[in-house]
Amino acid sequence: MTKKQKRPGAAKPVSKPWSGRFRNRTHRLVETFTSSLSFDRRLYPYDLQGSVAHCKALERAGVLSRKETAQILRGLEEVRSELESGRFSFAEEDEDIHMAIERRLTELIGPIGGKLHTGRSRNDQVALDVRLYLRDALGALLDSLRRFQRVLLEKARAHLDVVMPGYTHLQRAQPVLFAHHLLAYVEMIERDKGRVRDALVRLDVMPLGSGALAGTNYPVDRTYTARLLGFTQVSENSLDAVSDRDFAIEVLASLAMVMMHLSRLSEELVLWASQEFQFVDLPDSFCTGSSMMPQKKNPDVPELVRGKTGRVYGHLLALLTTLKGLPLSYNRDLQEDKEALFDAMSTVVASLEVSTELIKGLTVNRAMLAKAAGSGYLLATELADYLVTKGVPFRQAHVTIGRVVRWCLDRKQDLRDLTLADLRSFSDRFEKDALDVVTVEGAIERKAQIGGTARKRVEARIKALEKVLTLRS
Ligand code: ARG
Question: What predicted TM-score, i.e. pTM, was given to this entire model?
Answer without folding.
Answer: 0.93
